[in-house]
Design a protein that fits this description.
The chain is of the alpha/beta class and 116 residues long. The chain is built from 3 helices and 7 strands, in the order E-H-E-E-E-E-H-E-E-H. Strands 1, 2, 3, 4, 5, 6 and 7 form a 7-stranded mixed beta sheet that branches. A hairpin with a 5-residue loop joins strand 6 and strand 7. The longest helix is centred in the middle third of the chain and has 14 residues.
Length: 116
């Protein structure tokens, strides 16, 4: 079973420190706007899917990492999965991305992620 690290109200700067220090373990940060989650993206996959690997959320995308195609697929796929608006907060050109799931609660997100 994967463990989810829950934090309440840290700043975006703190989230960045968590990513660098803990080797990208799963972090869910609750903010007024919604939840911040960290994911690792693997482009050029056979199908879009979300998995847990090495204690992190990994999203497999089918698109090429060219001209934001992967970012668009990532956002569209996660919006469909969570049923909420998803925005890319950081990692526009990186495989490590920080996303905002608008209006979601920790319980909503845990429920969706633990079903995977």
């Amino acid at each position: 079973m994967s463990h989810i690290l829950l934090r309440s109200q840290p700043s975006y700067l703190y989230v960045s420190a968590v990513k660098k220090c803990s080797g990208w373990s799963i972090v869910i940060v609750e903010k007024d706007e919604g939840l911040i989650i960290n994911v690792f993206v693997k482009p050029r996959s056979k199908e879009f899917k979300v998995t847990f690997e090495s204690n992190e959320i990994v999203v497999y995308c089918t698109e090429e990492p060219v001209k934001g195609k992967v970012n668009r697929e990532l956002i569209k796929g996660l919006q469909k999965l969570f049923g909420r608006q998803v925005e890319l907060v950081a990692g526009f050109t990186s495989r490590q991305k920080t996303l905002l799931v608008r209006g979601a609660t920790k319980g909503d997100l845990e429920h969706v992620l633990l079903q995977r």
